[in-house]
Amino acid sequence: MTLDASQITGTNFVYQNFAFERCLDDMVELGRERIELWGIAPHLHIPVATDADVRRLRQQMSDRGQRLYCLTPEQVMYPVNLGSDVGWLRESSIAMFRRAAEICAELDGEVLFLTPGRGREDEDPAEPWKRSIDGLHQVVEYASTLGIRCVVESLQRSESNLVFDLESLVRLDRDVDHSNMTIALDTVAMAAGGDTVEGYYAAFGDRITHVHLVDGAPSGHRAWGDGELPLADYLRVLERHGYDGMMSFEIFGAAYSREPLAAHRQCQDAVSAALASWP
Predict the structure, then answer these.
(1) Domain containing 218: what range?
(2) Residue 278: inside a domain, yes or no?
């Protein structure tokens, strides 16, 4: 498998201060036809999204020849936490993910993006681990009934005290133990955890089905060229292993919030240059 630009999704990451239509128009300009939709207000706040809201999003994509690939609910900044010991918070988090799976299916999407949540820093880590595993299993099983595949990623230690490196992601994958859940490789979380693309492949092989391709130092979710991560090296390893999934630019931050198209174009140009840099 030879990597190419058709494996890059469009995304609304860093477009939260713009209309969703502006994001889609920019993605058309970049040639993106499949969309990873970040579920965040004002574009799609999943807990309050109506059927009419979902139909509108679907029409907006269809009008531009685009379709949903992956729905990624906001689950770090919002009060969403599968590992919480607060009953209402955990139950509402599970309900949000179940609704997200339904919306993904209604939009003819393929993938629901999941993260493990976190526990309190002052509790026995075995307890939030059990809550997270149980919550993930519930969501993954429900999504399977709708024909939606789930992917899960490691986070950074500042985002989760449960899964923040390859070792803990392997353990989580083993404990959830569900055929409907595969692995997302996030280059920033991977680098911050001290891990490598080769290490991910040694652990998961072709169960790596989605990539958040983003620069960092090592953290930061930066556009490619604004950090220090070795893009060409990452792409070489992905190509050597025959990676045929999708890749998204998960960029964030004030530096990109006023000119998101320029940031996405910067990433796309960097990938094109990297792919052209070897025979």
Answers:
(1) 5-272
(2) no
